[in-house]
Amino acid sequence: MLETLDQVQRRDLGLDALLEEKGQTPGELLELRERLGRLQTELEDAEARYSELRQEVGRSELELKSLDERRKNAASSALEASSAKEASQYQNQEMQFTTRYQELEEDTLPLIERLEGLEDEVNRLRGDIEDLEPELERIAQAEVDRVADVKARIGTLESERAEVARGVDPSLLKQYEQVRRARRGVGLVEIIDNQRCGGCNVRLPIHVIQKARGGQGVTRCPSCGRILWAKDA
Ligand SMILES: [Zn+2]
User: Fold this and answer.
1) Distances (CA, A) of 56 to 61, 63, 163
2) From the CA of 191, how far away is ligand 1's center (Å)?
3) What is the 201 CA–ligand 1 centroid distance (Å)?
4) Distance from the alpha carbon of residue 225 to the mean position of ligand 1, in angstroms
5) What mean pLDDT do residues 17-30 have?
6) 162 CA from centroid of ligand 1 (Å)
7) What is the pLDDT of residue 6?
8) How many Cα atoms occupy the beta-carbon half-sphere of 65 within 13 Å?
9) CA 196 to ligand 1 center in whole angstroms
C-alpha cells in the first residue's frame, strides 16, 4: 500500500517541479520587455517635447509672417506718402518691424535646430522599437511554446497520478494529501536507520517504529505528522 502511495508522491513531486518550471519566465524575455517599455516611455516623452516645441516654433513663424507683412505695408505706405514727414514716419515703422523681425528670427533659429534634433531622436527611438519588436515576438512565441510543452507534461503526469492513486486506500490518500499540503510537498517519509523520521529527523519512539513495521493502519511521525514508511520491513 505505501509502495503505491510512494508512486503517487513521486508524481506529485514531479508535478510540483513542473509547476515551478512553468512559472520560470526566461530572463531574456523579461529583459527585452523591460527594454521595450523603457524605449516606449522615452519615445512618448520625446514626442511630447517635439509637439510642444513644434507649437512654439509655429507661433513664432506666424508672428514672423505678420511682422513681414507689416514691414511691407509700411514700406509701400512710405512710397505713397503725401509728405516727406509722413514718409519718414512710415520709414521709421518699417525699420522697427525689420528689427523686431530679425530679433525674433534670431530667437527662433535655435528652436528650429532643437526641433530637428528632437525629430532625429523620435525617429531613432521608433527605429530601435521596430528593431526590437520582431526579436521580442520570437522570444515571446518561444515562451508560449515552452509553457504549452510544460502544460502538456503536467497533463500527462496528472492522469498518471490519478491512475496510480486509484490503487491507494482513500482514507490513507486523504491523510497523505493533508500532510503534504501542511508540510510543503512531502507527506510520506521513510524511517531512517530504523530510528529517525525521514522528514523532520526526530528520533522516533520504539512503539511508533514497531507500529510502522507491523504495517497495520497508518503510522505518523509524532513530531511532524508525516506518514512513516518502514520500507525494509
Ligand atoms: Zn517527522
Assistant:
1) 9, 11, 74
2) 9
3) 6
4) 6
5) 95
6) 26
7) 97
8) 6
9) 8
Q: Is the pLDDT of residue 34 over 90?
A: yes
Please say if the pLDDT value at position 142 is more than 80: yes
Domains contained in the chain, CATH given = 21-165 (1.10.287), 170-229 (no CATH)
**226 Cα to the center of ligand 1, angstroms:** 6
pLDDT band at 214 (very low <50, low <70, confident <90, very high): very high
Stated pTM of the model: 0.71
The rounded Å distance from CA 100 to ligand 1 centre is 92
CA distance 56 to 108: 9
Q: Which of 92-96, 184-188, 214-218, 228-232 has the highest mean pLDDT?
A: 92-96
How many angstroms separate the alpha carbon of residue 198 from the centre of ligand 1?
7
Which set of grid coordinates corresponds to residue 180? Answer: 503534504
Which ranges of the chain does DSSP label H, i.e. alpha helix? 2-22, 27-79, 84-165, 170-182, 206-214
Q: Evaluate whether 154 touches 19 at the Cβ level (below 8 Å).
A: yes
Residue among 197, 169, 203, 165 nearest 183 (CA) = 197
Interval 77-127: pLDDT, tens: 999 999 999 999 999 999 999 999 999 999 999 999 999 999 999 999 999
Instruction: Give the distance (Å) from ligand 1 centre to CA of residue 229.
Output: 11
